[in-house]
Amino acid sequence: MAAGSAPGWAVGALGVVCLLLRLDFISCDSQVIYGAVNKNVTLYASSFKPFKEIVWKRGKDKVVEWDDQSEVRAFLSFKDRVHLDTVSGNLTIFKLTQSDEDEYGIESPSVRNNSKFTLKVIESLPSPTLSCALTDGNITLQCVILEAYDTHVELIQYSWDCPSTIQCQSGSKPSEAYVTKEGDLSQEIQCIISNPLFRRTTSIILSTCVPSDNTRHRFVLLAILPALICGLLFIKCFLRRP
Q: Which N-terminal stretch is annotated as signal sequence (predicted)?
């Protein structure tokens, strides 16, 4: 009898867990929050009754604590850098630094679950540089960040804004694109880099990637000019002979 009821008990327990998940009583996921260096970020609490006590933690260390019998108390490097809203339970951190990255959580009898937040602190993106080269009848475009930038580079996304008259083809890397030389070279192509907080753009006119006819003629003239000079000097010397 006991053995036969085990499957039914397991199904019933699973149903309770699913119900609690639907009602937001249990949360296993940590919400990712992005903040910018030297800016502020707010971590939002979710309560079902007024707060009487609150503890925010970074990992296992206290960030701030409060109860209705005492004042708000901040800890460690968060002194004078945090604000706790004792009504909503929200925590605001000011003047963010890279060292603030970590997992944060609120603990209080007024919250249905100990909400977790993973804070990622991102620096502002520098403007990219867009270069081009003509190879095998195609224009190769490359969008790069020349400045030293190593803050969550895995979050950087590259995209291209091409006019409808131009067909842009993706390169072997997201930062590369190809355009056929036969397209409308008077058009402008834009490279866009972005992360969850910032967006930067740069652009180039395709005609600057292809030498004009005058430029090609200039290259030919520069190539044959030394030979012409040598020929004239030889003739001059030959004519001076007695």
A: 1-28
Query: Span 31-122: which CATH code?
Result: 2.60.40.10
Taking the domains of the chain in order of start, what are their residue ranges? 31-122, 128-208
Query: What are 185-238's pLDDT values in tens digits?
Result: 899 999 999 999 999 999 999 999 887 753 334 433 344 555 656 566 656 665
pLDDT tens profile 37-48: 999 999 999 888
Strands (E), the chain: 31-36, 41-43, 53-58, 61-67, 73-74, 82-84, 91-93, 102-107, 116-122, 129-135, 138-144, 157-161, 169-170, 176-180, 188-194, 199-205
Domain 128-208 fold = Immunoglobulin-like (2.60.40)
CB atoms within 10 A of CB 222: 9
Measured between alpha carbons, how far is 179 from 210 in angstroms, rounded to an integer?
Answer: 12
Q: Report the predicted TM-score, pTM, of the whole model to 2 decimal places.
A: 0.71
176 contact partners, CB below 8 Å, separation of at least 6: 140, 141, 142, 143, 170
pLDDT 10s digits, 117-162 = 999 999 999 999 999 998 887 899 999 998 888 889 999 999 999 9
Q: Give the integer Cα–Cα distance in Å for 73 and 66.
A: 6
CB 63 within 8 A of CB 75: yes
CA distance 142 to 171: 9
Rounded to whole angstroms, what are the CA distances from 210 to 13, 84, 140, 176, 237? Answer: 69, 59, 11, 17, 42
Contact, 71 vs 129, CB < 8 A? no
